[in-house]
Amino acid sequence: MDPIDGRAGRRSGSQDLRRTLEYVQDDLRALVSPRPIIADGWGLRPELVAPLMSSTQRMVVTVPTEEFRRYQLRELTRASALPLNVSDPQLAQRNRIARDRLIAEDAVRNAKRLNIPSIEVDGSRDAQTMASLVAEHFREFLP
């Protein structure tokens, strides 16, 4: 059974994430930079990325709180947008919120298990402060 979506038998959410990660890896390998490269995205699961890293300290997981996610859904049109062919928009939105919560909880749980630092995103810090937190974490890896 798939740990992310609970399905059995057919191709699962975890398999889709692994395939996506393969594409991201290909893209990252094509980049050349004397500086570290930051990759971000909800599909970059800690348990999938950690084996690719020389150290889990070269990673940080940022995860939104449920309250911040709800704020985004209320305030950002793109965050609350649903596919046009949804027959029950309220149910679809509830399902999305529940899925997002499960994904966030799973990311935090796996980060802790793998000794990967995590930063909670709750909206109380502006983008510059968040960037500074991430930069501080990676200070020893920066030129």
Q: What is this entry, summarized?
A:
By secondary structure, this protein is mainly alpha-helical. The protein contains 6 helices and 2 strands.
Q: What is the helical fraction, as a range of percent?
A: 40-55%
Q: List low-confidence stretches.
A: 1-10
Number of helices: 6
* Euclidean distance between termini CA atoms: 44 Å
Going by helix content, strand content and strand pairing, the class is mainly alpha
Taken in chain order, the helices and strands follow as: HHEHHHEH
In the sheet with the most strands, the strands line up as 1-2
Main beta sheet strand tally, sense and closure = 2 strands, parallel
Shape: globular
Q: Tell me the strand percentage band.
A: 5-15%
What is the arithmetic mean of pLDDT? 83
Number of strands: 2
Calculate Rg over CA atoms.
17 Å
Explain what the structure shows:
This protein is mainly α and 143 residues long. Helices cover 50% and strands 6% of the residues. It contains six helices and two strands; from the N terminus they run H-H-E-H-H-H-E-H. It has helices at 13-30, 46-49, 66-75, 77-80, 89-113, 127-137, and strands at 61-64, 118-121. Strands 1-2 form a two-stranded parallel sheet. The longest helix has 25 residues, at 89-113.
